[in-house]
Amino acid sequence: MRSGVLLLLLLGNTLPSFVVAQTTPTAKPPNVHTRLATPGKGAHIVRFYATSEDESSKSDAPSGPGPLHIIYSDGSQVEIPKERGRFGDPEHPLTQDNFSNIQLADDRQHLGWLAEYMMCSQSYPCPMELVVYQAGHKLTYLFSSYGVIWSWTFLKGGKCLAMQYGFPHGDETGAFALYDTDTGRVIAQFSSKTKKEAPHWVQQLLMSNK
Question: Does residue 204 sit in helix, strand or coil?
């Protein structure tokens, strides 16, 4: 039986407006309940998937419509449900469509994913924010300065992460941001429009996409 307790996550800050979105972010979204288990000391993540158990056994892709399941080396499991209310308006809150681009850091303690919502002009959901999970901590939410998130990767064993973002169409290179994984603090930013040589962390992100 999956063990766990309910952890109440509160979104304290209003999310920024997205140029591509037709719906404005919710100023005061409803409380988000996430079911969390407590892995034993020294346990690490060994598997994760966001599809049903039957689907996950037939595919190597961990992304999907969720909920997101995280399995630890001691057998404990964590279930992250799709969220509702972080985007949209109070009368029409949006439900997260998918978990995509799920990545495990080298420390095997941090797991991140892109939360996709139907907020763009096209007929498929867009990756609007990057969410990071670590056992015993509240979820960390990171979002781009504009547009949608194109790609991301953990760096320094999970201590930092890099993000590339931009408009869904008509933006050739987008922009880049480097974050502290645990605090969500922006460490550095970069735009290729400056004509300067890309810093090492940007090069690492671009290499991870090849």
Answer: helix
- Judge whether 133 and 174 are in contact, CB under 8 Å: no
Tokens 């303690």, residue? 109
Give the span between the Cα atoms of 94 and 87, in whole angstroms.
6
CA–CA gap between residue 96 and residue 94 (Å, rounded): 7
Please choose, from the candidates 3, 164, 13, 173, the residue with its C-alpha nearest in 3D space to the C-alpha of residue 74.
3
Rg, Å, the chain Cα set: 17
> Alpha-carbon distance 31 to 122, whole Å?
29
**Which pair of structure tokens corresponds to residue 189?**
């930013």
DSSP 142-195: E--SSSEEEEEEEEGGGTEEEEEEE-SSS-SS-EEEEEETTT--EEEEEEGGG-
- For the chain, report the end-to-end CA distance as a whole number of angstroms: 40
pTM of the model: 0.78
State percent of the chain over pLDDT 70.
Answer: 77
